[in-house]
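To whoever is on call:

I kicked off a structure prediction for a single chain this morning and the downstream step that reads the tokens threw a length-mismatch warning. I double-checked the sequence; it's 157 residues and nothing unusual in it as far as I can see. Pasting both halves so you can look.
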Amino acid sequence: MDDLKQLIEFLKSQQVTEFDLDRGDVKIRLKFQPEAAPAGLGDPARTPAPAPQQRPRVAAAQPAEPVAEPAAAATDAGLHIIKSPMVGTFFNAPAPDAAPFVSPGDRVAQGQVIGIVEAMKLMNEIESDAAGEVVECLVTNGQPIEYGQPLFSLRVS
């Protein structure tokens, strides 16, 4: 239940309106209804989007939509993007009090461990699939990630 509460809070903070999870015999569908904006508050383009309501609704699971790549990753076409090989939670260090595996500006070798993805209580080391310089980490420590989601951008050498 704590994991579910944490997931709901994350989804609300990211203003996600729908979420589906289907793992074996566990099927969860969350749908948040956006609040109506009060009339006459000025230019709608400058008004921040309302936060989703806090009433998740659980129903039958449906396939999730693919994750879109961040705009920052697409701005420099010369960079190599390392993507997540699985769904899980990303960790940038081997322990909470340890230094990150890599930081922007670090040089990495092909096969070097650059992060960990926790999936189903298993810690899976993520290795660089190319050698080069880390330009940007595209996810944060402890962030839930999807299959194929960009994790790092590298300037290949």
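Update from on-call: the warning came from a stale cache, not from the record. Cleared it. Sanity check on the structure: Residues 59-75 have pLDDT under 50 and may be disordered.
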